[in-house]
Please model this.
Amino acid sequence: MTAIGAKSNEGSTGSGPSPDLEIQRVPSGTSAEKIAEILLRDGGVVVTGLLGLDTVAELNSDLDPYVSARSSGYREGFQTDFFGPRTTRVRGLAAKSKAFVEKYLLHPTVLGVMDIALLPYCGDYWMSYAGTVFIGPGEKAQDLHRDDINWAVPARLGIDLQVSVMVALGDYDAEVGATMVIPRTHRLPIDEPVDPSLAKPVELEKGDAMIWVGSLLHGGGANQTEDRVRKGLYISYMLGWLAPEEASALSLTPERVAELPERARQLLGWSSLKGNPVRDDVMSALQLWQVDEDEVGRFDGLFTNR
Ligand SMILES: O=C(O)CCC(=O)C(=O)O
Model:
């Protein structure tokens, strides 16, 4: 189902990018299967109203103090052009916000989509990165990129390594820096040049989410306003046999971990995980991310083996 007025990509032929293609929009309540079908076909999809406005308000109130205390940009000399000198990124979110864990990290539709997209290639997936991407006034557009370039060797296998979700926590229109995307660039060879003028902004209302695979060309838009901030909350999930961008386990104290639901602990690196998708032979006994001969989840005696 597409939003009124939005074009459908369903009849389009060919698998590569074209000026006619747009990221499709489906309403919250759409099945994970349908969302994943569009995601894997086009490289990205928007789910409108994925999070309710009450949840958006909770997330803002949990995170605003941390955003206010943080200066924008990365530390001096560390890729500030790519990450944006006027962009504020706060990570370690599971330690900072209950709503982040309960309503976003574990969102059943999001995890349903991840199961379909990622479990064919791994025994389990985990969180790679989560953070605010608040783009301040005057920020230039980020270079178009594929997130999978972090893992450039397996990115050439032609499988999905990672799937990301960006929820709008506030303004997210083209003028303020909505994410620029080129649909259907996700199955091209990773080094293949693509005409950047094909990128279009994907505008979101508060609570809407864009979901995309790590091989899709995209980038943060330019914030052309003088006084508005583009407020996105980013999360990505990746195959468990790859090292995540964020060492999220290290930002959690054992006390905070003890309060987390089991699936959250698994996604945040407080559990060992199966490397292979095979479940019924010796391969399924092999675990990654262990401590000595034990599974991380049992390390302090609190958690069960998965
Ligand atoms: O801010 C955005 O819209 C995209 C951010 C992004 O792709 C990144 O920082 O890698």
Notes: Residues 133, 147, 166, 179, 218-220, 232 surround 2-oxoglutaric acid (CB under 6 Å).
